[in-house]
Design brief:
Rossmann fold
Length: 253
């Protein structure tokens, strides 16, 4: 296996005193897409929140490194500046905040933290419109405040627009397929596949095989009882779809 871009080592996380992740270890090499699948309550979202630095999800022990540098103790915006992107299961709306201004400000804040030049309004608008067309968001939607009045599917399209704009080093997609129709699933697959590169990694969290038909993972990991209990190639998705998680969850006991 190539050197890991994202390395999670013996990660233990408790929420309100309840153990959620139990000495979980996982490595994702640069250039690869890995998928996490598992039953409800197995710790999938907790894993994504912990890597991204969401408040309240500080580990009890263990470490998370990106390109060999620990992320533990860094604020979410600091992790984002280093290239960590999280696509939420339920994206939020921000009434009163203009979409394009918000996204350009966020992008330039990350660039400034990395010592890069700001993107001008004209250059941003050109790229923004191109990606908006790719994800299927119409100009009238983009004139609204950020995600305000958007359907669930439209919010997911907006997240894929952000993914394309920010070009992160490592993207975590937390059940992005939830509530999406087949056209939206194809769009997600198109964005991810266009961004696949030797210096970028993805961790895709999902319940179902259908997203993985469009985003072909290099590896699939089964998460149960707060730790990885089984790993395999892309064919594992069909095996889970047919036989369920019970064939592997006994390993978590």
């Amino acid at each position: 296996m190539r050197n890991a871009m994202l390395n999670i080592e013996n990660l233990t996380v408790e929420i309100e005193g309840n153990p959620i992740l139990d000495s979980l270890s996982l490595s994702v090499p640069a250039g690869e897409v890995h998928a996490i699948m598992g039953p409800n309550g197995s710790g999938k979202s907790t894993l994504s929140y912990t890597v991204a630095g969401r408040p309240g999800y500080e580990p009890v022990s263990g470490d998370v490194t990106l390109d060999g540098e620990s992320l533990i103790g860094l604020e979410p915006d600091e992790r984002a500046a280093k290239g960590v992107f999280l696509s939420f299961q339920s994206p939020v709306a921000i009434p009163g905040v203009a979409t394009m201004n918000f996204l350009r400000t966020a992008l330039n804040a990350q660039r400034a933290a990395r010592g890069e030049d700001e993107v001008s309004s004209a250059d941003f608008l050109k790229v923004f419109r191109t990606h908006a067309q790719t994800v299927g968001l119409t100009p009238d939607k983009l004139k609204r405040p950020f995600n305000d009045g958007f359907s669930g599917g439209e919010k997911k399209r907006m997240e894929m627009l952000q993914l394309a704009l920010f070009q992160p080093r490592f993207a975590i997609m937390d059940e992005t397929d939830s509530g999406l129709d087949i056209d939206a699933l194809r769009m997600v697959g198109r964005v991810v596949n266009e961004l696949r590169s030797p210096d970028r990694g993805f961790l895709v969290i999902t319940h179902y095989q259908r997203l993985l038909e469009h985003v072909r993972p290099d590896r699939i990991h089964v998460l149960a009882g707060g730790r990885i209990v089984h790993s395999g190639g892309p064919e594992l998705a069909a095996e889970l779809e047919e036989g369920g998680y019970e064939q592997f969850t006994a390993e978590a006991a």
